[in-house]
């Protein structure tokens, strides 16, 4: 069956044999976007987190049929080297990654959090950022999330001034 | 004295009417479910069958009294600190639907059904006796302001309730256990209990 979706701003149509194929495999193998990672395959670790209509989902446990007509954002679409997303910029500034494998999932979950809670408390972070990092970079990630919130607030303030 | 037949039959009719009213069972003060045609089972038996289902982990895991959803047959707290949140659906950016969709996922073993979420806090049944659960079920202040008709519809037609009999596989690929009463028997039991006035036994 054919499924149309907007991925990182581009309209794509994919032909899938099984409509229940996890979105993760479509993103990685058909759309060749390797930033989203396979971790546990059971929606537990969060390495495969991406955004569907701006909501965080675990793509290893998300049937591709559900993205028909929707907007999907992966780590590649969050920002780029020239214009990094505040979350990506904060991750660089706080030198968060160690091995780095789980980090795209954390960054996508953080982007979703900042969309809902622009200035998250430690409790908000504890409640919402529940991905797993085997390198134990949680402390640096917490700092980066607070940093990202400030960067995003600065951008919003500047945009308001320009208007 | 010779009694005319018409008076004899009139007397019989009056006695009959009196007996009918005298033997009408007392029903609860709640508005009764209007489907007397299906009232065939013993309502106490129906009540126990219904409670066998409501107290089963497939139902009870999402009717917690501590705002923490439970998982598995051992009813352990949901992993990763998931909790009710403000809208019974988890937290702002990590909600129930971050992982749970509207269908069971056969790849990951994550269960799913339409409007997957916790039952409202007022419907917390965990740790309560059967009678206490029934009281909460019937009380409009704790049942989402549902009438008997609406309760029957919810319990016999709602996809999330009926998911209990199609819970899919778990993360290890094993079939989840289902309630000890079949879906058909449960529906009949619910309808019959309400049709008989939704009386809580031994109360």
From TrEMBL, chain A:
Q: Which domain of life is it from?
A: Bacteria
Which GO molecular function entries does the Swiss-Prot or TrEMBL record give? 2 iron, 2 sulfur cluster binding; metal ion binding; oxidoreductase activity
Name the Pfam families for this protein: Fer2, Fer2_2
| InterPro entries hit by this protein | 2Fe-2S-bd, 2Fe-2S-bd_dom_sf, 2Fe-2S_ferredoxin-like_sf, 2Fe-2S_ferredoxin-type, 2Fe2S_fd_BS, Beta-grasp_dom_sf, Diverse_Oxidoreductases
UniProt entry keywords in alphabetical sequence: 2Fe-2S, Iron, Iron-sulfur, Metal-binding, Oxidoreductase
Pinpoint the 2Fe-2S ferredoxin-type domain residues: 1-78
Q: What is this protein called?
A: Isoquinoline 1-oxidoreductase, alpha subunit
Q: Which organism is it from?
A: Maribacter stanieri
Q: Cite the source lineage.
A: Bacteria, Pseudomonadati, Bacteroidota, Flavobacteriia, Flavobacteriales
Automatic annotation (TrEMBL), chain B:
What name goes with this protein? Answer: Cytochrome c domain-containing protein
What InterPro entries does its record include? Multihaem_cyt_sf (IPR036280)
Instruction: Tell me the organism.
Output: Maribacter stanieri
